[in-house]
């Protein structure tokens, strides 16, 4: 059974380093170039092949490959003779990271002089093996496999019964009953699988709830016991062999999931995990200039394994130094942190957490939003220029973050920002990254063409559909459905090992979210108490709003609420609405009744 790209990428994950130029004892150098169309034009003119080294700056094996393989004089000479060399930090290039995620880091990709992919290799390649591989490609540059793009013909926004049953079976069969998580050699939290299991479990499926709890509890072994924060994954099929890099994406996923699990179960171990992870970020990855950095390296000395270092206590570690921190501040990671903090605030009610989320949102607007709208990836982008490529990952995460900020603050500026992000995605990104807008412009086999990424389209379908229920705009529903048309395709599903995210998207796009509205003045303490209680619900598919009549109607004013002498809350789903709720401690009880979960 094939692995999903998302899971296979982590199954093969090996790591990184960025040192240019690279030197060996023989003073070998490689003239690395950046990824650009000009490099491929140069290859066509010179007849040289292309070698692409995709790395990540935070982990071990890319450091080793830089030092031993690319630092080898024979390898350097062979590359100089017949190849043009490109080196890419995958964190800095979302489109390349998405395209080659399944090959892990380092990934080594070869193209012929015409720009066609011919060979792909995952992980560390020793010098002798690389020398032999380079020579073999020069002798015969034909592709190793005849790849073809996935053709998506359906335009539906729902799964067929057959495909839904297939995905449910894949979800159930992919579980490791001994250790939790997925039944593969890498142990980590797959966020969609855990979220799906948690939601199914809270709807009454005890086996799914046990699965979610087992995985979440077991994954606590990946938490750094001294500094907190989570290591990315463990090898050997158990949780006892961690790789020590700490990546922002990993931290934000853990904060969000553990906060959601705490809201559902009230297990304080989950609350502690989320709060400890935030404490790690604030200590090590928070920039004094605003925003958060991208990652912390697995190696104290690049290329040397650091298991013994991470066994030390805080004082001992500091005496030896700390692993390198990548101080790039990317939109996608910071926006994801906003969403994670929004969930943590909802679960705990800590105002300082909400204030952090708002501060990051303001930083993104001031430092990553470009003049014509949309969000650039990093600080190297010129925000005054509108001809730079925008990436779906950055802008869909920003859209999600702004929607989440509206949810926890009831400040309409954030909803307006989310709506503006949807417009940018539709007008400037969707033709490239979402199927059907138009699909004919996307060539999956052309490395310079836009790449359609399943994981990003899952996030897009869910986030834009949620926004639709806040905005009421048909254009948002259409955009969400176009993303769903890709992820619900039988041809796409056939390539997966497991993909619970498709099940989550399918469930959400085909029903209304849980709708909680507080009607009352924002200066009224009882209305504030009702709003806080509404936020405590664990459901991920929800629409929470606070309607102060003095601000005018809600942006999507689809329900008329009675004029009452005191503040009240209402809980609705796609079948019915509650009577007014005046006591905050009654909201969760009414949610269970509305959702049909009361015992």
UniProtKB/TrEMBL annotation:
Position of the signal peptide = 1-24
Alphabetically ordered keywords of this record: Signal
Q: Does the keyword Hydrolase apply?
A: no
Instruction: Indicate whether Signal appears among the record's keywords.
Output: yes
By its UniProt entry, which SUPFAM superfamilies does this protein fall under? Six-hairpin glycosidases (SSF48208), Thioredoxin-like (SSF52833)
The Gene Ontology biological process annotation of the record reads:
carbohydrate metabolic process
Protein name (Swiss-Prot/TrEMBL): Thioredoxin domain-containing protein
What is the organism field in this record? Zhongshania antarctica
